[in-house]
Amino acid sequence: MDAPPILFDAGSEIGQAYIAAMHLAGQYAYAGRDMVVEKVLEILGAESTYEVHNHHNFAWTEEHFGEKYWVVRKGCTLLPGQKGFVGATMADTSVIIEGVDSELSRKGLYSTVHGAAELCQEMKLQE
Questions:
Q1: Phi then psi dihedrals of residue 111, to 5 deg
Q2: What phi, psi does 42 have (nearest 5°)?
Q3: For the whole prediction, is pTM greater than 0.90?
Q4: DSSP secondary structure, 74-113, as one string
Q5: Does the CA dihedral 17-5-124-62 come out positive or negative?
Q6: CA 119 to chain CA centroid, nearest Å
Q7: Is the predicted pLDDT of residue 121 greater than 70, yes or no?
Q8: Is 10 helix (H, G, I), strand (E, B) or coil?
Q9: Other beta carbons less than 10 A from residue 66's beta carbon
Q10: Model confidence over 18-66: pLDDT tens digits?
Q11: Angle at the Cα of 120 (from 55 to 88), degrees rounded to 5?
């Protein structure tokens, strides 16, 4: 694992393959989560009354400050009005949070919670 990072051109064949694989991995993660929740609810004889899905550890293309960027976040993304879940220990209270639009949240590219201060990488998209 002691290797320098590799940067692919998003428009190249290998870059497009990486993006497709990343999206597939995200869909796989959601499907796995859904199956676990479904099984736990079945075991408990319960029904879901409210769900919060939120991607993290993922790359998006987004527009900020009038420019397009690839944004890779370690933590949760909360766009204005979007819900997020902050899990706690068994002894503490978990919370559902909602993104707000403010100068501070815009400066942070709407990242929050773990990784909020460490926007892993931003790269301006080439036009």
A1: -90, 155
A2: -65, -45
A3: no
A4: SSEE--BT-EEEE---TTS--EEEEB---HHHHHTTTEES
A5: positive
A6: 12
A7: no
A8: coil
A9: 5
A10: 999 988 988 898 899 899 999 999 999 999 998 887 766 777 888 889 9
A11: 50
Q: Is the alpha carbon torsion for 88, 76, 116, 98 positive or negative?
A: negative
d(CA 23, CA 117): 25
The distance of Cα 15 from the centroid of its chain, to the nearest Å, equals 20
Domain-wise residue ranges, the chain: 1-50, 52-127
Which single residue is written with the structure tokens 């990486």? Answer: 18
Q: Are 15 and 8 in contact (CB under 8 A)?
A: yes
CB-hemisphere CA count at 13 Å for 24? 6
Residue 124 bridge partners (DSSP): 69
Please name the residue that has the structure tokens 């559902």: 96
Determine what percent of the chain falls in helix, strand and coil, rounding each to the nearest 5.
Answer: 30, 25, 45
54: Cα separation from own chain's centroid: 6
Q: Which of 39-48, 104-113, 116-125 has the lowest mean pLDDT?
A: 116-125
